[in-house]
Amino acid sequence: MPEHNSSQSVIQKFIDVNGAENGALLPLLHAIQDTFDYIPKSAVTLISKALSLSEAEVHGVITYYHYFRYEAPGRHIVQICRAESCQACGSDELLAVAQDILGCSLHQKSRSGLITLEPVYCLGLCASSPAIQVDNKLHARVSIETLKGVLVDLEASA
Ligand code: FES
Q1: Does 122 contact ligand 1 (Cβ within 6 A)?
Q2: Domains and CATH numbers, the chain
Q3: Could you tell me if the CB of 12 is within 6 A of ligand 1?
Q4: pTM of structure
Q5: Closest ligand 1 atom, CA of 130?
Q6: Residue range 19-48, pLDDT digits in tens
Q7: In this predicted model, what pLDDT tens digit does every residue of 137-150 receive, in sequence order?
Q8: For residue 40, cis peptide bond before it (omega within 30 degrees of 0)
Q9: Cα(91) to centroid(ligand 1), Å
Protein backbone atom coordinates (compact mmCIF):
# COMPACT_ATOMS: atom_id res chain seq x y z
CA MET A 1 0.00 0.00 0.00
CA PRO A 2 1.57 3.32 -0.99
CA GLU A 3 2.36 5.80 1.73
CA HIS A 4 -0.03 8.76 1.60
CA ASN A 5 -2.45 10.71 3.74
CA SER A 6 -4.87 7.81 4.15
CA SER A 7 -2.09 5.64 5.56
CA GLN A 8 -1.29 8.42 8.02
CA SER A 9 -4.90 8.59 9.12
CA VAL A 10 -4.97 4.82 9.65
CA ILE A 11 -1.77 5.05 11.69
CA GLN A 12 -3.22 7.92 13.69
CA LYS A 13 -6.28 5.80 14.50
CA PHE A 14 -4.04 3.02 15.87
CA ILE A 15 -2.25 5.63 17.96
CA ASP A 16 -5.51 7.10 19.20
CA VAL A 17 -6.61 3.66 20.39
CA ASN A 18 -3.31 2.47 21.90
CA GLY A 19 -0.86 5.29 21.74
CA ALA A 20 -0.73 6.80 25.18
CA GLU A 21 -0.38 3.59 27.16
CA ASN A 22 2.88 2.30 28.55
CA GLY A 23 4.27 -0.46 26.39
CA ALA A 24 2.25 0.67 23.39
CA LEU A 25 5.17 0.83 20.99
CA LEU A 26 5.45 -2.82 20.00
CA PRO A 27 1.68 -3.42 19.73
CA LEU A 28 1.44 -0.28 17.59
CA LEU A 29 4.23 -1.39 15.30
CA HIS A 30 2.66 -4.84 14.95
CA ALA A 31 -0.74 -3.35 14.15
CA ILE A 32 0.78 -1.05 11.54
CA GLN A 33 2.83 -3.75 9.86
CA ASP A 34 -0.09 -6.20 9.94
CA THR A 35 -2.13 -3.56 8.09
CA PHE A 36 0.40 -2.29 5.52
CA ASP A 37 2.87 -5.22 5.39
CA TYR A 38 5.54 -2.69 6.34
CA ILE A 39 6.05 0.34 8.56
CA PRO A 40 5.54 3.55 6.57
CA LYS A 41 8.25 6.08 7.41
CA SER A 42 5.61 8.60 8.46
CA ALA A 43 4.68 6.26 11.33
CA VAL A 44 7.99 7.01 13.05
CA THR A 45 7.17 10.70 13.44
CA LEU A 46 3.57 10.10 14.45
CA ILE A 47 4.52 7.46 17.03
CA SER A 48 7.42 9.42 18.47
CA LYS A 49 5.15 12.41 19.10
CA ALA A 50 2.37 10.30 20.58
CA LEU A 51 4.63 8.31 22.91
CA SER A 52 7.05 11.14 23.74
CA LEU A 53 9.96 9.19 22.29
CA SER A 54 12.63 10.43 19.94
CA GLU A 55 12.38 9.36 16.31
CA ALA A 56 15.76 7.65 16.81
CA GLU A 57 14.29 5.53 19.61
CA VAL A 58 11.36 4.42 17.46
CA HIS A 59 13.65 3.76 14.50
CA GLY A 60 15.97 1.81 16.80
CA VAL A 61 13.18 -0.53 17.84
CA ILE A 62 12.01 -1.03 14.25
CA THR A 63 15.49 -1.94 13.06
CA TYR A 64 16.28 -4.07 16.14
CA TYR A 65 13.49 -6.54 15.36
CA HIS A 66 14.03 -8.44 12.12
CA TYR A 67 10.28 -8.83 11.82
CA PHE A 68 9.68 -5.16 11.01
CA ARG A 69 10.46 -3.66 7.61
CA TYR A 70 10.34 -0.17 6.11
CA GLU A 71 9.75 -1.27 2.53
CA ALA A 72 6.71 -2.96 1.04
CA PRO A 73 7.60 -6.63 0.49
CA GLY A 74 7.27 -8.57 -2.73
CA ARG A 75 4.20 -10.69 -3.37
CA HIS A 76 5.90 -13.59 -1.58
CA ILE A 77 8.08 -13.60 1.53
CA VAL A 78 10.68 -16.34 1.91
CA GLN A 79 12.17 -16.58 5.39
CA ILE A 80 15.20 -18.74 6.04
CA CYS A 81 15.82 -19.75 9.64
CA ARG A 82 19.14 -18.41 10.86
CA ALA A 83 18.97 -19.73 14.41
CA GLU A 84 21.40 -22.24 15.88
CA SER A 85 19.84 -25.59 15.01
CA CYS A 86 19.17 -24.64 11.41
CA GLN A 87 22.63 -23.12 11.02
CA ALA A 88 24.10 -26.40 12.24
CA CYS A 89 22.03 -28.24 9.63
CA GLY A 90 22.89 -26.18 6.58
CA SER A 91 20.88 -22.96 6.57
CA ASP A 92 23.98 -21.01 5.52
CA GLU A 93 24.05 -23.03 2.31
CA LEU A 94 20.31 -22.52 1.81
CA LEU A 95 20.75 -18.79 2.23
CA ALA A 96 23.61 -18.69 -0.27
CA VAL A 97 21.52 -20.59 -2.83
CA ALA A 98 18.51 -18.34 -2.27
CA GLN A 99 20.60 -15.20 -2.66
CA ASP A 100 22.13 -16.57 -5.84
CA ILE A 101 18.82 -17.56 -7.42
CA LEU A 102 16.96 -14.42 -6.36
CA GLY A 103 19.83 -12.02 -6.98
CA CYS A 104 19.35 -10.25 -3.68
CA SER A 105 20.51 -10.18 -0.08
CA LEU A 106 18.51 -10.53 3.10
CA HIS A 107 15.86 -7.83 3.58
CA GLN A 108 15.76 -7.20 -0.16
CA LYS A 109 13.52 -8.12 -3.07
CA SER A 110 14.45 -10.54 -5.83
CA ARG A 111 15.41 -9.24 -9.28
CA SER A 112 11.80 -9.70 -10.36
CA GLY A 113 10.50 -7.87 -7.30
CA LEU A 114 8.19 -10.79 -6.56
CA ILE A 115 10.02 -12.29 -3.59
CA THR A 116 11.37 -10.70 -0.43
CA LEU A 117 14.11 -12.66 1.30
CA GLU A 118 14.21 -12.41 5.08
CA PRO A 119 15.88 -14.11 8.02
CA VAL A 120 13.88 -15.62 10.82
CA TYR A 121 15.18 -16.80 14.17
CA CYS A 122 13.55 -20.15 14.92
CA LEU A 123 10.33 -21.39 13.45
CA GLY A 124 9.78 -24.00 16.14
CA LEU A 125 10.94 -26.79 13.84
CA CYS A 126 14.39 -27.28 15.32
CA ALA A 127 14.02 -31.07 15.35
CA SER A 128 13.44 -30.90 11.60
CA SER A 129 16.10 -28.38 10.65
CA PRO A 130 16.81 -26.65 8.41
CA ALA A 131 13.49 -24.88 8.15
CA ILE A 132 12.06 -22.09 6.04
CA GLN A 133 8.74 -20.31 5.84
CA VAL A 134 7.21 -19.29 2.53
CA ASP A 135 4.43 -16.79 3.09
CA ASN A 136 2.57 -18.56 5.91
CA LYS A 137 3.63 -22.11 5.06
CA LEU A 138 6.36 -23.90 7.00
CA HIS A 139 8.82 -26.24 5.30
CA ALA A 140 11.01 -28.61 7.35
CA ARG A 141 14.19 -30.56 6.50
CA VAL A 142 14.66 -28.33 3.47
CA SER A 143 17.29 -29.52 1.02
CA ILE A 144 18.98 -27.29 -1.50
CA GLU A 145 16.98 -29.01 -4.26
CA THR A 146 13.72 -28.40 -2.41
CA LEU A 147 14.57 -24.74 -1.92
CA LYS A 148 15.47 -24.32 -5.58
CA GLY A 149 12.13 -25.84 -6.56
CA VAL A 150 10.20 -23.59 -4.19
CA LEU A 151 11.90 -20.45 -5.48
CA VAL A 152 11.52 -21.36 -9.14
CA ASP A 153 7.81 -22.13 -8.59
CA LEU A 154 7.27 -18.80 -6.84
CA GLU A 155 8.98 -16.84 -9.60
CA ALA A 156 6.93 -18.76 -12.21
CA SER A 157 3.66 -18.01 -10.39
CA ALA A 158 3.76 -14.36 -11.49
S1 FES B 1 16.50 -23.13 14.83
FE2 FES B 1 15.47 -23.17 12.92
S3 FES B 1 13.49 -23.87 13.45
FE4 FES B 1 14.47 -23.64 15.38
Answers
A1: yes
A2: 5-64 (no CATH), 76-156 (3.40.30.10)
A3: no
A4: 0.82
A5: 2
A6: 667 688 999 999 999 999 999 999 999 999
A7: 999 999 999 999 99
A8: no
A9: 10
